[in-house]
Specification:
The chain is α/β, with parallel strands linked by helices. It has ten helices and eight strands. Helix 2 packs parallel to helix 3 and helix 3 crosses helix 4.
């Protein structure tokens, strides 16, 4: 994280923009307790979009539906998401994060409702889930924007590949589906949210082999992780974007991520010492 405040995130985005690296803002937090809290989160994102437009940044935002009240009421959550999308200028995408597997159906329902009305909304999907291939295929006729990730939650083996090698192999297979859909005009933005450098290189080679413009291959990474690779991608003509998380909720968020997946600590330490 560049800091806890929106100001710190804006400074980080301006610095990234100088290196031709885009940015996406996300305000840390999840699972609000009541409607007023979800309302506050919505108002915060409206303020963030106002600030982005004011500063002429091309930054986008990424929201968690559980923060917009999905547990309280899908209709209420949809209304909050809709307000955020309407506040966007129509060119930038409002991204929707994907959470634990028991949220996937409800998230897809809200996403489909939003996409039916607004083309500028994107969804994150996880390659560790067996269901994702079908979820993607079902979405392509609606011309979605997709950010593919491996998945961050601890999931049981009946819903997710237990072996990392299978998650990685499925990632590349799904990425090929997304790039094919992109070529055919059925995927507005094909985004790959990963720090896996060999995988990123493979994706880049695949895009070139297919004769697609490099800019169609969009790689999103977290702030401060694999910085050299973020800069290399931007220099080489790929679209390189950094997800900038900020807010005061980082400690509970980090502890929860650790409890769900202790390997995250190892990733973090390796990168702190590598950067
Ligand atoms: C832009 C973006 C958006 C995301 N959105 C979601 C989402 O909505 N839902 C969801 O479930 N998950 C999300 N994730 C997290 C994702 O699911 C993975 O848990 C995470 O990115 C690690 O997988 P990897 O693809 O980087 O590959 P891995 O094979 O897990 O890691 C490759 C290498 O990257 C480095 N690395 C990876 N992650 C980290 C880290 N956190 N800290 C330090 N180093 C790291 C390590 O060196 C590691 O060896 C997002 C990730 C990114 C980059």
């Amino acid at each position: 994280m560049p800091g806890e405040t929106l100001d710190a995130a804006v400074v980080a985005a301006q610095n990234l923009a100088q290196k031709n690296i885009g940015s996406v803002f996300t305000h840390l937090g999840e699972n609000v307790a009541d409607r007023s809290e979800a309302r506050q989160v919505t108002d915060h994102y409206l303020q963030v979009l106002g600030r982005i437009h004011q500063t002429n940044l091309s930054t986008e935002v990424s929201v968690k539906l559980s923060q917009l009240g999905l547990d309280l009421s899908p209709d209420f959550c949809f209304a909050n998401l809709e307000e955020i999308i309407r506040h966007e200028n129509g060119k930038s995408i409002v991204w929707v994060d994907i959470e634990a597997s028991h949220y996937v159906d409800a998230t897809l329902d809200v996403y489909r409702r939003a996409l039916a009305k607004y083309p500028n909304v994107g969804l994150c999907l996880q390659s560790y889930l067996y269901r994702t291939k079908k979820d993607l295929a079902d979405l392509f006729p609606m011309k979605p924007s997709i950010r593919l990730v491996k998945g961050a939650y601890k999931e049981p083996p009946d819903v997710a590949f237990p072996k990392k090698a299978d998650v990685d192999a499925n990632y590349f297979a799904l990425a090929q589906d997304m790039l094919k859909a992109k070529r055919e005009g059925n995927c507005v933005r094909a985004v790959f949210g990963t720090h896996d450098v060999p995988l990123i290189r493979r994706l880049g080679e695949y895009v070139v082999q297919q004769g697609m413009p490099k800019i169609d291959c969009e790689i999103h990474m977290l702030f401060g992780i694999q910085r050299a690779e973020q800069e290399r991608l931007a220099r080489d003509g790929f679209r390189s974007v950094v997800l900038v998380a900020y807010g005061t909720y980082w400690y509970p968020w980090f502890v929860r991520r650790l409890a769900e997946r202790p390997a995250n600590l190892w990733f973090l330490l390796r990168n702190v010492f590598a950067s």
